[in-house]
Design goal:
Strand content: 35-45%
Number of strands: 7
Order of helices and strands: HHEEEEEEE
Shape: globular
Helix content: 10-25%
CATH topology: Lipocalin
CATH superfamily: Periplasmic lysozyme inhibitor of I-type lysozyme
Distance between the termini: 80 Å
CATH architecture: Beta Barrel
Radius of gyration: 25 Å
Number of domains: 1
Length: 137
């Protein structure tokens, strides 16, 4: 009887130690390791630039505005298009003499094509700004 109990407890112990890494996640379950990895990667990406903002047009299209290089008063900017096709495309880039103060989407000419606006501000004189516009073709 003692050997039988030992065998049962041993079997239960082995069954409880199995990893569920082979299980397919179902709706409602979270893969916390994947979320942590993605979050760390995203934070690293964002902190490697002086400025980064994602502008969402709709669920299948976003634009990333990135400020990089140089000091806070000089450097470059780039506008990247990311669509459902997963191809990142740099749509425009250029030099900036100042910091990126604001970015936003608009359709000021009402032609149903999104426009990305980047407001560059002189850090020594905040009222001095320059606005760069990119319109999708």
């Amino acid at each position: 009887m003692r050997n039988f109990l030992f065998l049962v407890f041993g079997f239960l112990f082995l069954v409880s130690c199995q990893s569920n890494s082979s299980k397919i996640p179902v709706v409602g379950s979270l893969d916390s390791a994947a979320i942590a990895t993605d979050t760390i990667m995203q934070k690293g990406f964002e902190s490697s630039y002086e400025f980064h903002k994602t502008l969402t047009v709709h669920e299948k299209l976003v634009y990333d505005v990135v400020g990089y290089g140089g000091s806070s008063s000089a450097g470059e900017y780039a506008i990247l298009r990311r669509g459902a096709d997963n191809k990142t495309d740099t749509v425009t880039k250029g030099a900036r003499n100042g910091i990126i103060a604001k970015t936003f989407l608009a359709d000021s000419n009402k032609n149903t094509k999104e426009e990305v606006y980047v407001v560059i501000q002189n850090p020594s004189n905040p009222s001095e700004t320059k606005t760069v516009k990119y319109e999708a073709k």
